[in-house]
Amino acid sequence: MKGLIGGIFAVMLLAACGGRSMSAEEMQHKLDSIQKIEAAERLAAQGINLADADNPLKQFYDSLNLLPLPITYSDELVRYLPDFKPVPQDIAKALELEGNNKQKAISLSESLGARLMILAADEEDDRYSLWLYSLDNDYLPVDKLCLYAIDEEADLDDFGAEDILQYFTITSDYEIHLMDYSKEAHKTRTEEVFTLDAQRNFQLQKSEELD
């Protein structure tokens, strides 16, 4: 963290002393570069060298089974994680993936400059939450989005609570739909739509309540 703060301060000094103001885009590019260096240094401390021809993150990604698009929520997918492979603990740590040492992963169809995978974090009773990760050219995480979270135990005093199901779809052109579906009303209550931008960040395009 100290290195990152120092790097940001150095960028600000360069921007101030260079004789012209730095655009927001240039500033963000330099900050992203600093963060990437910081991430590479953290991984190097774990024995993961991104400059190595045998980049462990690339090897891991290439070893995953492919889940073709489009995909949509199903009980089978979130409960049994078909074709998902175990995530080695050094990789889980590098990807900052939480869980109890039984994490799993699968990659998605690669196109339009997108490199995506779904990571499953085991939380309790062998139940998993699902996270969609976007990766850069070094296979480092750029952004992540929660697709599905396991149900928490209902409050015993909350008798009027509505039974809500989390539902998601990912289209062939990487449009991600996250929905809350009411089992009682048989209708979608909320919907959020995300797309992947040129920097491989997930951008919220639409958020609405449908009641």
From TrEMBL:
It comes from the Bacteria. It comes from Xylanibacter ruminicola (Prevotella ruminicola). This is Lipoprotein.
